[in-house]
Amino acid sequence: MSVNIPQCQNLDQQVNSVIKLLLQESSLRSQDLSAVRTSLEKAISPRFEIVFAGAFSAGKSMLINALLGRELLYSAQGHATGTICYIEYAATPSDEKVVLTFLSEVEIREQVHELCQTLGLSTPGNLHEIEEAKRLQEAAKTLYEQEGGESRNQRAKRAKALEQLLAGFVANRDKINANNNTILSMGELADNGVDSASLYARRSQNSAVIKKIEYYCHHPLLEDGNVIIDTPGIDAPVQRDTQIAYDKIEHSDTSAVVCVFKTAANGELTSEETQLLERIQNNSGIRDRVFYVFNYIDATWYDDQLKNCLNRHLNTQFSSSDRVYKTSGLLGFYGELIRQTHGSDRWGLDSIFAKGNLSHQEAEETPKFIVEFNNYFFTSGQLSRSSFPITPAIGYAETHQEKYLQILNAHGYNLMEQLVLDSGIDQFRDDITRYLTEDRRPQLFQALAEDLRPVCISLRSYYLQNWWDLENQPKEIDAIKDLQLRQLSQDLKTIGDEFEQYIKAHLNQTVASNENAIYDRDFRNLQRKMIERLDTLIQKFSVGEAYKSAQSNHPNSAVVPLLAILAEAFYSLSDDLKVTLVECCETLVANFFQQLTEQVHQADFYHRLYRLLGNDGGIDATLNQLQRKVHDAVISAANTECGAYVRETPEFYAEGTVPHFQLRQTLREACNSADYQGMVEAEPAIRQLLKIDFEKKVKRTVLRHFRTVINLTINDNLQVGAKHQSQTIFSQYETARANLAKTLEQEAEEKLEHNHQLQEKIKQTIDAYNNSVIAINDCLVAMGLGRGKLPAIKDTDLDPVFNYQQPAFTEPSYNIEDEQETSPEIFDAEFTPTEKSPVMSE
């Protein structure tokens, strides 16, 4: 647990206990718990991202350095890189580390191409050609020099960015992968220290090709999930870098946005700064979490015009001064460091400002802080001369460093305290820390409570409803018996209706869809057997046998006409196909009713009916009777269907059709000879003629027509039979009453015991629910969120004395005056039972 509040130490266990209780109830487990799980994760393992945004040179990095008291981030006037920096917590100083993510060669090429296009330069064909890269570097350098310096305008910034990007690629080619981002720790580069990483990243040729830096530092401001993020400038020369900044500013997970402006230094808001303000103020989702910092406030101490311009912007842009700060990151940062030094190391000249800790350019010049510190002491107007007089030793000092030493020798820590106070850093640090701990962190717990509330309301209502369903059951055996008998008529009607509805549902599954797998399988089997049987009959057809059969019917004639042969064939094929169709229909009907009967036997209404009557109320007899009726009707339909096969199809004689052509060919071949042998020779043609005619008839039966016949037969008979059986069940009241009289005594005793066990189980579950909810509420109270307590179940909710009227269920009400930060009592939510719901599953 990231928050050291005793009442919240086991919050995750308590919340998961409530979730587990919900998942145990089948009727509730469909409730979406994703929001609860997400809120819980944020509450117990928070990550507060504090995003610093602003233009280049606004002082974001120096401000972050001042907050942490360490020079981690690159900080310099003019153009910096598009690197995004994350600063996260390290548990101990030995855990500190830095991880660098480099741009891929593909990303570098894209940026070079974009910059060259905007600058009007030709894009290099191959970055690995050193001479080509140097040529482009020189061209970029010439451009920003022509513009009057690298920070003069956007074109100059782009030219400087291109020069640094190319230099960084050349210097770090061994770390840049063609397609992927190389990730290296400082230990893999050189020294693993955080300060070494800062120096490495400060070099422009390195920073230009670093995509992301992750610092892990041991600092109290970073505890409990606080993450400081330094974004690229909103006026970045590469559009991708600007978008990175805005994506972080507007992201829903960003806890705070620190907008840093340099208005105090130049007197105006830049166009990019104005756009940033407008986007924030027009976005209701982020404007309430924004801190506005006007850096370089020390510039207004020496220039009244800058001071007036700044005040005008503040009065115009902001309706109040809440979360608006005036700071000097430079003075605040070094002021914090100097407060930790003393005269023996010449107030940091031998440590902080030693040449080994400075870049080459800084080592050759007087550190900027010393110059600004001297200005602060002499001309800022911030100091009282009665408190901080100019002593003779100070007045006699000549160089900046001599003046710096004499000033601190005379006024020491008191002056540094005043400097840090005037820099505005302490107030800014205190306010943002207070926001995260007192505002933002409780918001996470409040969000968790709000997401968990519907779950608790559902569980509470469910438990109490089940409790009162059981509590309202009769408590005496005679009362249970009387209740059962009074309900008997309605129970019989309900069972009859359920039987009828069950049959209708089964019919719908069978007739209106292919969901009845057994029925569908049997009919497909019927189709297959009919087609296979036709093929077999055609193949085995014998003209000789047909000739004999036809001649036996006319013994006085020695010659048999072809039409007689065909007539014998038509009758023979029709009879054989009829046998196959009847067999398949018998199987289909038998399997359908066997499946239906077995499923009815397993249905709940069937067992309830058996309990009431001691028998099935005639259901099996009805189903058997219906099976016989359906069987007879389907077999009759099969006989009729195949009986019609004897008649030729109309196409058989239609001119221009295949059957007509085949018939003429067959007749011609058979009539070439008047004896038996001529007929035998025409046998292949006769088979083909029979195949053409019968295939159409059989396919019409099995593919288009006969399933509908069977479906209608089953549907019509079962609809009528189910309705009649439903009425029969309802009419057996006297039989049911006589049967129940024999068993109600024992059932009533079992019912009482069963209800008692269920109530005990519900009570145990309610206790488990209350234990978790009370523990969660204690945490909320400790966080100052007593008004948002979750609803528990009180003893009075289970007491008949307080609930004799049994009004309808309502959601627990909230008393706005019940500020329970000082009271650990559970939320007082009234329970009101409603209509019956299913009793909890055993």
UniProtKB/TrEMBL annotation:
Gene3D superfamilies: P-loop containing nucleotide triphosphate hydrolases. SUPFAM superfamilies: P-loop containing nucleoside triphosphate hydrolases. Pfam families: Dynamin_N (PF00350). Keywords: GTP-binding, Hydrolase, Membrane, Nucleotide-binding. It comes from the Bacteria. Residues 50-287 form the Dynamin N-terminal domain. Residues 816-842 are annotated as: Disordered. This is Dynamin N-terminal domain-containing protein. It comes from Limnospira platensis NIES-46.
